[in-house]
Amino acid sequence: MADKLAPEKRHIFLHNGQKVFEWDQTLDEVNIYINLPPKVNSKQFYCKIQSKHIELGIKGNPPFLNHDLTSPVKTDSSFWTLEDDIMHITLNKRDKGQTWASPILGQGQLDAYSTDLEQKRLMLQRFQEEIGYAIAANYWGQGICTKAVKVAVSQVFKDIPDLVRLQAFVSVENQASQRVLEKVGFLREGILRKFSYVKGRVKDVALFSLLSGDTHSLQTQVLIFHKLNLVETVPIQGPLWVESDQIDLCHRSFYLPTAARRAAVLIWHIWQNRNNQVWNNSKVSARQVGIKANQTWEEWSLVQGLIEEQPGTVSQHDNNTVQQHTAITPATQWLPPRPGILKCNVDASFYEAAGYTGWGWCLRDHRGRFILAGTNLTQGRLNTFEGEAMTLKEAIEEAMSKGFSHVIFESDSKNVVDAISFRQVGSSEFSIIISHIKSLLLLAPNFEVKFTKRQTNNVAYERLIP
């Protein structure tokens, strides 16, 4: 389990040298904690929260507090509870992110230094969040936590646009939890000595972090030996999104020597094999990975015209294997867009046995140069139309978020492309996704969706590799 840190130290509100209550605040709310007098029935306490005023006390007695608040609050989401002889009042700030010097207007205010520290802490809180998780012992070792954290991490950076840093604190003794974070892509920053108090013991904890930029990186460690049957891999960390500067070897390999191109193909197949192991619990041997990479390289080279073979030509791959090829004519090619326009090819994949639906897309310019790509995986088996539509929707959203103005989106699902042009609106999940896509296209008049044959779409993705 990833441990949760204790809350920030509370401030003490004093009046005539006497403690009235304690309080703290987050970006969204102010919390007030009042110690209740003993031997008073809980039903006798009351608290009235207004937009700019608070009153509380014991019924039939003068109010304990009857003051204006420092700033307005949202009354519909502010509330109070009684917990172990403590009245806990939660005031939801109307102006999110505002730093309060005191809950009570003009009284008990923090000094200038403390206010500055509080403001810095809240500003840091705006860009930093903490993740924690736990799972019953019966389900340990099944990869459930890893999958759940992956989904949570990919979503949290979407839900909190300002989030820069996600961190976790794990006991140094909890190696399993540390492996979960490392698989998701968290970086271990170090050890905080005697930092956490758990079950009567003061323990060391390991600090892990994941930055928003880390979700756009693909940290791959690969050991490539000369013979394909000696290929071994170290687990790949990180990657939901791949940007151009992190895949430089792949998108520039068209201009590289043959050895570098083949290495790029091999790396891609190793990465694919790792993903199959993580998500589908299936993988092939290192030799099979090498054979598949070799086949992909030859097919791509023939399509691109880098090698030419006539019918009956014999290619000798090693001392024991001789294969015969027939000429392949690149009848289907990926056509680049006009200068100033980007082209994005999208496609979905379905893992029925594992119950997952995946999708991916890649964006290139008029010279075929790689610009941006993304993949995603969702639990649940969507039908073919829904999966293809989700792929297109996500690609459009990401292109808009990056500020691209002229983009052609190509999908090999004619049903999806045709549905976008239809005026009729349905109530199915597929229709809802299509309606969302239509709304996005209204906001981006220079975006265009076109149908392309599956062979062309496949060639488009193959161009990304070598």
Automatic annotation (TrEMBL):
CDD domains: p23_NUDC_like (cd06467), RNase_H_like (cd06222). Residues 16-104 form the CS domain. GO terms for biological process: protein folding; response to stress. GO terms for molecular function: acyltransferase activity, transferring groups other than amino-acyl groups; nucleic acid binding; RNA-DNA hybrid ribonuclease activity; unfolded protein binding. Transmembrane segments: none annotated. GO terms for cellular component: cytoplasm. Gene3D superfamilies: 2.60.40.790, 3.40.630.30, Ribonuclease H-like superfamily/Ribonuclease H. It comes from the Eukaryota. InterPro entries: Acyl_CoA_acyltransferase, CS_dom, GNAT_dom, HSP20-like_chaperone, NudC_fam, RNase_H-like_dom_plant, RNaseH-like_sf, RNaseH_domain. This is NudC domain-containing protein 2-like.
